[in-house]
Design a protein that fits this description.
Elements: H1 3-11, H2 16-25, H3 28-34, E1 38-46, E2 55-59, E3 65-74, E4 77-85, E5 94-96, E6 103-104, E7 118-119, H4 124-129, E8 136-137, E9 152-154, H5 157-169, H6 179-191, E10 192-194, H7 197-200
Parallel strand pairs: 2-5, 7-9, 9-10
Antiparallel strand pairs: 1-2, 1-3, 3-4, 4-5, 6-8
Helix pairs in contact: 5-6
C-alpha cells in the first residue's frame, strides 16, 4: 500500500451524502461500479501547480469542508485522490491531493477492446454523466498522451481545434510550414470526431 492509498484508507468514509451527490451529477450504479467513492473532511487551498483544476484538497479529520473523493488509479497504482467540494453552487471548487494524476480514467486511453471513439470530457460533471466511461485530462501537459487513444469524440468544433493543437501540434515544437506539422495536422483531424460525425460518415 503506497502513501496515497494510506491517505484514502485513513480519511475516507461512506455516508448518505455520497449517493445523494452522485445522483445530482450522474448515475449511482455506473459511478459506483467505476471504483471506490466516499466522503472525506479536509480543506481546499489554492493549487500551486498549473493543472486543469485550481485547488488542492488537504485531508484532515478535523477539517470544516466536506468533499466527495475518489482514488485516481494509473498503471495499477493509486497515484492521487480527486476531491469535489460538497454544497457548492458553481461546481468549480475541486482538485486533487498529490497533483500526480494525469487523467480521470486514463486506462481507457489504452483500451484496445474499444470499438467506438473515446469520449473526451471537458468537465468532471460531464465525465460523471458519461458513467465515467470517457476520459478527462487533469494536467495540460498530459493531453498529448491522448494520441494513443486512436479515434476520440468531442462535443464541438472549438474543443476539437484546441485538442488538435494541444495533443498533435504543440508537442512537436516545429515550424508550422514543415511537413512534420502538416502530417500531424492531417492525422489529428482524422482522429478527432465531433458529436455524431462517425455515424454520419
Amino acid at each position: 500500500m503506497n502513501e496515497t492509498e494510506k491517505l484514502y484508507q485513513q480519511y475516507a468514509y461512506d455516508s448518505p451524502a455520497v449517493d445523494d451527490w452522485i445522483d445530482q451529477h450522474g448515475n449511482i450504479d455506473t459511478v459506483r461500479a467505476f471504483g471506490p467513492i466516499a466522503e472525506m473532511k479536509g480543506r481546499f487551498v489554492p493549487a500551486k501547480v498549473s493543472h486543469i483544476y485550481q485547488h488542492q484538497f488537504v485531508p484532515d479529520s478535523t477539517g470544516t469542508q466536506r468533499a466527495i473523493v475518489m482514488p485516481v488509479i494509473e498503471d495499477g497504482a493509486t497515484v492521487d485522490i480527486v476531491a469535489w467540494r460538497l454544497s457548492q453552487a458553481k461546481l468549480d471548487v475541486w482538485g486533487c491531493v498529490t497533483h500526480a494524476a494525469r487523467f480521470l480514467n486514463r486506462a481507457a486511453i489504452y483500451d484496445k477492446s474499444r470499438t467506438a471513439p473515446l469520449g473526451i470530457c471537458e468537465s468532471w460533471w460531464h465525465w460523471l454523466r458519461t458513467g465515467c466511461k470517457g476520459v478527462m485530462a487533469l494536467r495540460v501537459e498530459a493531453i498529448p498522451e491522448l494520441r494513443n487513444a486512436g479515434d476520440v469524440l468531442v462535443d464541438n468544433s472549438s474543443i476539437a481545434l484546441r485538442l488538435l493543437y494541444e495533443a498533435y501540434l504543440w508537442p512537436l515544437n516545429v515550424d508550422p510550414d514543415s511537413d512534420v506539422w502538416k502530417a500531424a495536422k492531417i492525422e489529428g483531424k482524422k482522429r478527432i470526431w465531433i458529436d455524431d460525425d462517425r455515424a454520419a460518415a
